[in-house]
Amino acid sequence: MKMNEDKLILGGHEFTSRFILGSGKYNVELIDAAVKFAGAQMITLALRRANSNGEGNILDYIPQGVTLLPNTSGARNAQEAVRIARLAREIGCGDFVKVEVIRDSKYLLPDNQETVKATEILAKEGFVVLPYMYPDLNVARDLVNAGAAAVMPLASPIGSNQGLATKEFIRILIEEINLPVIVDAGIGKPSQACEAMEMGAAAVMANTAIATAGDIVAMAGAFKSAIEAGRAAYLAGMGRVLTNAASASSPLTGFLED
Amino acid sequence: MVRINGNDIEHMEGKSIAEYLKEAGYDVKRVAVERNGVIVPKKSYEEVVITEADTIEVVSFVGGG
Lengths: 258, 65
Fold this sequence. Notes:
By secondary structure, chain A is an alpha/beta fold. Chain A contains 8 helices and 10 strands.
């Protein structure tokens, strides 16, 4: 497959970028450059009580044509997630929602059961639902049945930059689930994003790795390259691994001493 | 008295949502409004009038993952 024919399809929308960029924890004035260097076509946002003091709204900093992916952060159960998603849609920026239900304040791990409930309600209401989840195969299947457009398993705790701690379980989801698997949360370095893509992840979402980098915009670009490299490698098909053996790469004939 | 975004505010009764948002300096295109747990559609901002003991939430997008 040629790379330019390789599309990520979510709820009937096509994307050529496989990098979903977060917008938290850095200056909104860097968003435009970060989106461009990331080559991102989708950016996450949160919903909060509005300030009326006339400060610039984050939407004024996001380039045209970028799909908005509001999250339901702050929701502690399905009902709260549904409420936040409906409010987000009412602002008028599309039907995408990243369902995120968290009631663990130390490790910020998602509540899978409540996530399934919220996904079912929102999918029925026409949302394109991308649920953030702990990588559990049974739950992923429930999310498929609930109408999710993708599943977003965590790599490690949100904002930790610890990388692919759940790697083998994400691999199972990639093998078994017939929906895009988008690795979310905890990816700390481009090499980890690349590894996720090499495994066959459909996309990677990153925020803190970029927001806490020395040069935010440059790191957004580094992630773009890593994600593209990982995807290209996945499509190319990995070379085989030999254990307890070697295989010469150079010819075994025509040596000078022969 | 009404409660807006967690603050008790006097003398709001009788104003429409549109009037309140304008006076408070919100950008109507960038917010969503909930009144007593029910979303107020943008097209209804002129007609929906704030009444005593209402609880109103005005929300917008911020940076997030």
